[in-house]
Write a structure and sequence with these properties.
The complex is a heterodimer of chains A (336) and B (305).
Chain A: H1 6-33, H2 38-50, H3 56-66, H4 73-85, H5 100-133, H6 140-145, H7 157-171, H8 191-228, H9 231-238, H10 243-280, H11 286-295, H12 299-327, H13 329-334
Helix pairs in contact in A: 1-12, 5-8, 5-10, 5-12, 7-8, 7-10, 8-10, 9-10, 10-11, 10-12, 11-12
Chain B: H1 2-42, H2 87-123, H3 125-140, H4 143-153, H5 159-167, H6 172-185, H7 189-196, H8 201-237, H9 248-257, H10 266-303
Helix pairs in contact in B: 1-2, 1-10, 2-3, 2-5, 2-6, 2-8, 2-10, 3-6, 6-8, 7-8, 8-9, 8-10, 9-10
The chains are: A mainly alpha (336), B mainly alpha (305).
Chain lengths: 336, 305
């Protein structure tokens, strides 16, 4: 990591720790603010399912001890932080002997893959569209057609997802309705499996890409227009540099910096939105798992997933923070 | 000199473009609001209740999607869904409810954001550091996910409490924008002037800074309304919304649960989505209209950081 100042690194890492800690604390407070005793509620749910639960008092006491709810709050809190730090998220209530971390680890690759790929595609395409739109020499034809790609910008990803399912899965039968790969296949490294994964992931990815692309394009366009009047652009033109060189090294190079900042700011929102996209497509990632948690009132699972989501987003933001100085030399030299 | 001219020309072009967007967006939103307010005068909205109409009728002029469906009836121009609710009545009653959730959350978020942003930008020092770190952390956290956790503990929620719940995460964006603006404004001549002439911090904040911030507040309020309607619809689509009053998001949830996509009942989910798309597009046009009206300064201030 050549050139990143130590102060910057510490500052960004501090932000990462604070974000994760804040998320953890929220997950600790929310259940304890909820009305009623969670364990008693669990037992009464059991009773509702099984008709009757024998010795419910003893079960409640045992479970309170099992979940550590008999300890004073600060002790509970420290224990909770310690367990989360070791990635011990507790047991799922609906699938009891299974731990939450097992379930999440099974779902995580799907969410991670879909989200990373979709965000990268949407970011680069959006940036390209915005750069061309904000660049005066762009041909008129391109200038007229490119805004059409932004027509889904105002729509939430999951609604576009429903539309896409209806048109391409129900109507045209080009893409599958649900799942991440065809039913007969087992996850393995083969062309057939990879093709199936792409076939299943195409619609959810499209829903995310098409709805988020326009935001990057709009931001990029505004920055390119703002840049066009700057002195260094005029000097570059006056020096007679090739237009392509001016476009890439003077225009895009400078306009892209704020977009990277706004990427870091919106990753949380993108991750949140993709939860519902996964649910629409019954894509076996963490969003769909979260929905199952809601349906089953599986609180440890819900909290575990949200904790992992918060961590994932915080890591992504931290990584962007580390990349940022490499493309913006001003931060590198700031404190030297 | 030349640079200033080009900027001015671009600014003027952008202004005209922005106004067109602003007007179009406001027209759309006005139409949607009128539909919700006046619709109940002309249409019997008690048909939004369960089992008040025949089931699964397609909208007028459309063929039934399968063998098990009745042909359309003119008494139900937009069709009905699987629990016997009239779609038109659902849209008329659900649209204002969905918009209200967004308005409540965005209004509270705006007030909090403006107060925090102004305090941070104006006072500086450790107050600024605390507010900035909190708002950055809250922006990073996927708020929808945390909202899902909260709502999963709440068994029954109404429109107002849902708005209050969403407001918990509605302030960081505004705080950020306002803080950045205050930072750039507070060094301006007229603020220095006010300070020299003995105005208190409070007076400077509310009489000198606030009027200049209005366009930014308006833009981030509009973005807030649409963001909160989006979050509310997201929660509702998962079944975590109010179940006693109709909203557009809950209608989508019932449609998904009733396998409306597989049964070809496009009107069940399509009409509420269409309505939401109108709302989002309208608000989006207003937001970028406002944004581009005021932005040359903002962009430059933001780009310099």
């Amino acid at each position: 990591m050549r050139g990143i100042s130590k102060a910057y690194l510490i500052q960004r890492f501090g932000m990462f720790v604070i974000t994760v800690w804040l998320g953890l604390t929220l997950m600790f407070i929310i259940p304890r603010l909820a009305p009623g005793d969670p364990v008693a509620a669990m037992v009464s749910r059991l009773a509702a399912q099984a008709g009757r639960v024998e010795q419910s008092d003893q079960i409640i006491a045992a479970w309170r001890e099992r979940f550590g709810l008999d300890a004073p709050l600060p002790v509970q809190y420290l224990r909770y932080l310690h367990n989360s730090f070791r990635f011990r998220l507790g047991y799922s209530m609906a699938y009891f002997p299974t731990t939450v971390e097992e379930m999440i680890l099974r779902a995580m690759p799907w969410t991670f893959g879909l989200l990373t790929l979709a965000t990268l595609i949407s970011f680069t395409t959006g940036i390209a569209i915005g750069a061309l739109l904000g660049w005066r020499p762009t041909p008129r034809l391109l200038r007229m057609t490119l805004p059409l790609t932004m027509c889904f910008t105002a729509i939430p990803a999951f609604m576009l997802g429903i539309l896409l399912t209806y048109v391409f899965a129900f109507g045209l039968r080009l893409f599958p309705f649900a799942g991440a790969y065809a039913r007969g296949l087992a996850p393995e490294l083969s062309w057939e499996f990879a093709a199936s994964v792409i076939h299943h992931g195409a619609l959810p990815a499209c829903a995310v890409v098409l709805t988020s692309m326009g935001h990057w394009a709009l931001g990029m366009r505004a920055m390119m227009i703002g840049n066009a009047g700057e002195d260094y652009m005029i000097l570059a033109e006056a020096k007679g540099l090739r237009p392509a060189r001016i476009f890439w090294l003077y225009g895009v190079r400078n306009a892209i910096l704020p977009q990277v900042t706004s990427l870091a700011l919106s990753i949380g929102a993108i991750a949140g939105g993709s939860i519902i996209v996964e649910y629409i497509f019954t894509y076996p990632g963490m969003g769909y798992l979260l929905y199952q948690g809601i349906v089953n009132n599986d609180y440890p699972l819900i909290q575990g997933i949200v904790f992992v989501l918060i961590c994932g987003v915080a890591v992504a933001v931290f990584v962007i923070d580390l990349i940022y100085p490499l493309i913006d030399p001003r931060i590198r030299y700031e404190r030297q | 000199m030349n640079a200033n001219n080009t900027t001015a020309i671009f600014a003027r072009q952008r202004l005209a473009w922005a106004n067109a967007k602003l007007v179009a967006g406001m027209a759309i939103i006005l139409a949607v609001v009128l539909f919700g307010l006046l619709g109940r005068v002309f249409w019997d909205v008690t048909q939004a209740r369960v089992a008040s109409c025949p089931l699964n009728l397609p909208p007028v002029g459309f063929n039934p999607p399968g063998p098990g469906f009745q042909p359309y009836q003119t008494a139900h121009p937009l069709g009905t869904e699987s629990s016997g609710r009239d779609m038109l009545a659902l849209l008329i009653t659900g649209t204002p409810n969905s918009m209200l959730v967004g308005l409540i959350a965005a209004a509270i978020g705006m007030v909090m954001g403006v107060l925090l942003g102004m305090t941070a930008g104006f006072l500086g020092g450790w107050v600024d550091a605390v507010i900035r770190i909190c708002s950055d952390a809250f922006i990073t956290i996927p708020s929808l996910a945390v909202l899902i956790v909260i709502s999963s503990y709440v068994s029954e929620i109404d429109i107002k409490s849902m708005g209050l719940l969403l407001a918990l995460f509605a302030w960081p964006g505004t705080t950020r924008v306002i803080r950045a603006q205050v930072l750039s404004l507070r060094e301006r001549g007229y603020v220095q002037m006010a300070r020299l002439s003995g105005a208190s911090s409070f007076e400077i904040m509310f009489f000198e800074l606030l009027p200049n911030l209005l366009p930014y507040i308006a833009a981030s309020f509009t973005a807030g309304v649409s963001g909160n309607i989006l979050a509310a619809t997201g929660l509702e689509a998962l079944g975590l919304g109010p179940s006693r009053v109709p909203t557009l998001g809950m209608t989508i949830f019932y449609a998904i649960r009733g396998a409306a996509i597989l049964r070809g009942m496009w009107w069940w989910w399509g009409l509420p989505i269409l309505m939401l798309m109108l709302i989002f597009t309208g608000l989006f046009l207003i937001a970028i209209g406002l944004d581009e009206l005021v932005n040359p300064r903002l962009r430059r201030a933001g780009g310099g950081q």
